[in-house]
Amino acid sequence: MQRWKNACCASLLLLAACSESGPGTADGAAAPVHPGKATYERFCFSCHAAGIAGAPKTGDADAWAPRLARGMDQMLQSTVDGMPPGMPARGLCFDCSDEQLTDAIDYMLVQNR
Ligand code: HEC
Hints:
This protein has 113 residues and is an all-alpha fold. The protein has a domain at 35-113: Cytochrome Bc1 Complex, Chain D, domain 2. The chain contains 5 helices and no strands. α2 (37-48) packs across α5 and α4 (72-81) packs across α5 (98-110). The longest helix has 20 residues, at 2-21. The protein starts with a helix and ends with a helix. Residues 6-22 have low confidence and may be disordered. Heme C binds at residues 39, 43-44, 46-48, 52-56, 67, 74-75, 78-79, 83, 86-88, 91-93, 101, 104-105.
C-alpha cells in the first residue's frame, strides 16, 4: 500500500514539473506569469521594446508618464483604435480581447521602474 502511494506521488510530481516548464501554461501554477506577457512578446514587443516609430519604450517610465496620466481607459481606447501612423489597431493582435490588450498594456507598465 505504502509503495503504491509513493509511486503515485512521484508521477504527480513529474506531471507538475512538466507542465511548469511547458509552453503556454498561463495558469501560473507555481511561478505566476504576468497575464499580458505572452501577448506582449508576440505582438507588442516588436515596436515597444526598441521604441520603433516613436512607440513609448517598455520600461521607459518617462515615455509612458504622459500617456498614463490620461488614464488606462484612454490607453486601451487608443490601442483598440490605433494611433496612426505608428500604432496599429489592436497592436496587430486582431484576435485579442480588450482584456488581453489591457493585460499587455499593464505588462509594459509594470516594467517601468
Ligand atoms: C507596429 C508597431 C507597434 C506595435 C506592433 C504595437 N505598438 Fe503600441 N504604439 C506604437 C507607436 C508608434 C505608439 C505611439 C503612437 C503615438 O503616440 O502617436 C504606440 C503607442 C501605444 C500606447 C499608448 C497609447 C496612448 O494612449 O498614448 C499603448 C498603450 C500601446 N501602444 C499599446 C500596445 C500594445 C498593447 C501592443 C500589442 C498588443 C502594441 N502597442 C503594439 C507602435 C506599435
